[in-house]
Amino acid sequence: MIERIDPEPGQDEKATLLAFIDYHRATFAWKCDGLDAEQLARRSAPPSDLSLLGLLRHLADVERNWWGRVIGQEDRPKYYFDGEPSSAFRNATADQAQVTEAYANWREAVAEGRAVAANADLDQWFDSRHGRLTVRWLLAHLIEEYARHNGHADLLREAIDGATGE
After folding, report:
1. How many domains does the chain have?
2. Given 78, 88, 91, 121, which is the most exposed site by the fewest CB atoms within 10 A?
3. What is the radius of gyration, based on Cα positions, of the chain?
């Protein structure tokens, strides 16, 4: 059972942003919960490569990239990105070892993100390929990223087994 905690009103800005990103992370995990490798890898509709497993792999790379490579300035490879925007999706297959790895990578990247964000100042600047950005911008961007992909995940999950929910 995935626990989703509604963000509390009246918190300061940082606590609100952190609560919303965690809410969206939990929502995504909830959409994937209880599915086997074949279901997670099931494509939405040809010719699209979109699948829950592809989203899981993509979000692992998104988290790792922003928190580790960009803010942490650590030069390390992404998990799945091979230079092509759809690589996390294109190479997602119904292999249980791949699913296990994807969950482990995502959880690792999320844990790193939580640790970095907890110690970051919202006004902290960092350089990225998008220019100079703040941690505040990054948190807003990640909330948007998860919210958009949670919409995809909702449709994918409903097509797999009929499960619906916010």
Report:
1. 1
2. 121
3. 16
Q: In this structure, is residue 129 part of a structural domain?
A: yes
CATH code of the domain covering residue 103: 1.20.120.450
- Look up the domain containing 142 and give its range: 13-161
- 12 residue type, one letter: D
Phi, psi of 126 (to 5 degrees): -150, 160
In-domain check, residue 115: yes
Contact at 8 Å (CB) between 126 and 135?
yes
Q: Is the pTM of this model over 0.90?
A: yes
Phi, psi (5° rounding) for residue 4?
Answer: -110, 125
Q: Residue 92: which residues within 8 A CB-CB, separation 6 or more?
A: 40, 41, 49, 51, 53, 54, 57, 98, 102
Of 148, 151, 141, the closest CA to residue 113 belongs to: 141
Instruction: Give the span between the Cα atoms of 25 and 82, in whole angstroms.
Output: 24
The string of pLDDT tens digits covering residues 12-36 is 999 999 999 999 999 999 999 999 9
